[in-house]
Amino acid sequence: MIHQTWFWMLIILSPVVTTVATLARLARRPPAPPPQVEEAAASCGNEKDARQS
Questions:
Q1: What's the DSSP call for residue 9?
Q2: How big is the CA angle at 44 (ends 43 and 49), to the nearest 5 degrees?
């Protein structure tokens, strides 16, 4: 009986844990673009892209 209980707990909690982990990862601030991207945007005359970082 106890093995069945652990099985169903695992089945129910796995998607919950996966969802929470995914949302936590998506909630983090995205990393700044590498310097090459900023230099390329500035050299193309596109100040909007260079200022966004």
A1: H
A2: 95
Taking the C-alpha atoms of residue 5 and residue 13, their distance in angstroms, rounded to an integer, is 12
Q: Where are the alpha helices (DSSP H) in the chain?
A: 2-27, 35-43, 47-51
**How many of the other CB atoms lie within 10 Å of CB of 17?**
10
Q: pLDDT digit string (tens) for 11-35? A: 999 999 999 999 999 898 887 777 7
Q: Is 29 helix (H, G, I), strand (E, B) or coil?
A: coil
Query: d(Cα 11, Cα 48) in Å, to the nearest integer?
Result: 48
Distance in angstroms (rounded) separating the CA atoms of residues 27 and 23: 6
Euclidean distance between CA atoms 22 and 28, whole angstroms: 10
